[in-house]
């Protein structure tokens, strides 16, 4: 039985994670962290406590794994506290700075504690990123369009940033488009990641969607993934909880614990 704490149980991802953990026979939800609420009826009915601070929670309950689905500022502090107490972490929060990721990595390695941060937990999205990395060896002209709900704070998405990172590992630096290209409206060509243009769409009705478009002479290749609801992320979170129990140190990206090759 794996004892789990969930940070962010009222959020759209967090509430799905609560249901997943409660339905999984091998998981035991021992507490939740919510900075605004200390009583959530659905959890209170099951006798599951909700704490307004991570510090209070980690001292009150015996946790094996923290699932953090909050926002960058809160999540960063939660992870530092959890790792110092050798509580393993599975994190779906995005928007961490490079410095924050380096601090988390260093602390996970120093404490010999497993920590998985995944910009996306949908298995299909992981395959989309992996296939994009493979395609980039042959199609170096690439643009990324990512679409998310209008309440998402960070842009581009963590998935788009991670996709560009994976592509850059196999693709030589290249400036795409006309060398004298001019943006009539600033930002029209999107963000620029080593010549790869990334476009972010934020609209109500969307959940999480990404298309990677590769252009070649006389042909186009599109690799696309759509999450229609947040249940699409739960298999990846469940898999990560089981995996993090058997690793030491820091992993960034679910593709690094999946058997893709």
Overview in brief:
The protein is an alpha/beta fold and 261 residues long. It is built from eight helices and twelve strands.
Keyword list:
261 residues, alpha/beta, Rossmann fold, Dihydrodipicolinate Reductase, domain 2, 2 domains, seven-stranded parallel sheet, five-stranded mixed sheet, 8 helices, 12 strands, 33% helix, elongated, NAD, EC 1.17.1.8, amino-acid biosynthesis, 4-hydroxy-tetrahydrodipicolinate reductase, NAD(P)-bd_dom_sf
Description:
This protein is an alpha/beta fold and 261 residues long. The protein has 2 domains: 2-117 and 231-256, Rossmann fold (3-Layer(aba) Sandwich); 123-228, Dihydrodipicolinate Reductase, domain 2. The chain is built from 8 helices and 12 strands. A 7-stranded parallel beta sheet has the order 3-2-1-4-5-6-12, sandwiched between helices. Strand 10 (208-216) and strand 11 form a beta hairpin. The protein starts with a strand and ends in a 9-residue tail after the last strand. The mean pLDDT is 94.
Order of helices and strands: EHEHEHEHEHEHEHEEEEHE
Q: Structural class given helices, strands, pairing?
A: alpha/beta
Name of the level-1 CATH class of the largest domain = Alpha Beta
Distance between the termini: 30 Å
Helix content: 25-40%
Characterize the largest beta sheet: strand count, sense, and whether it forms a barrel: 7 strands, parallel
Instruction: Give the number of domains.
Output: 2
At CATH's second level, what is the architecture of the largest domain? 3-Layer(aba) Sandwich
Per CATH, what is the topology of the largest domain? Rossmann fold
| Total DSSP helices | 8
- C-alpha Rg, in Å? 19 Å
Based on Cα principal axes, name the global outline.
elongated
């Amino acid at each position: 039985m794996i004892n789990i704490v969930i940070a962010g149980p009222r959020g759209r991802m967090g509430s799905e994670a609560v249901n997943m953990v409660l339905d999984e026979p091998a998981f035991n939800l021992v507490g939740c962290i919510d900075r605004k609420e200390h009583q959530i009826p659905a959890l209170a009915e099951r006798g599951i406590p909700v704490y307004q601070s991570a510090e209070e929670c980690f001292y009150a309950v015996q946790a094996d794994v923290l699932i953090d689905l909050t926002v960058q500022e809160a999540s960063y502090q939660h992870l530092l506290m959890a790792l110092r107490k050798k509580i393993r972490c599975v994190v779906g929060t995005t928007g961490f700075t490079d410095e924050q990721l380096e601090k988390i990595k260093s602390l996970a390695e120093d404490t010999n504690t497993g920590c998985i941060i995944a910009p996306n937990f949908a298995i299909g999205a992981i395959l989309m990123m992996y296939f994009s990395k493979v395609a980039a060896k042959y199609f170096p002209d690439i643009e990324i369009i990512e679409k998310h709900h209008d309440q998402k704070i960070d842009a581009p998405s963590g998935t788009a940033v991670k996709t560009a990172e994976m592509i850059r590992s196999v693709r030589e630096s290249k400036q795409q488009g006309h060398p004298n290209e001019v943006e009539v409206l600033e930002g029209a060509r999107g963000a620029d990641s080593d010549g790869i243009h990334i476009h972010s769409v934020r609209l109500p009705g969307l959940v999480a969607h990404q298309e990677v478009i590769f252009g070649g002479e006389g042909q186009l290749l599109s690799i696309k993934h759509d999450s229609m609801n947040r249940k699409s992320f739960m298999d990846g979170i469940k898999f990560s909880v089981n995996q993090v129990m058997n690793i030491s140190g820091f992993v960034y990206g679910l593709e690094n614990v999946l058997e893709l090759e």
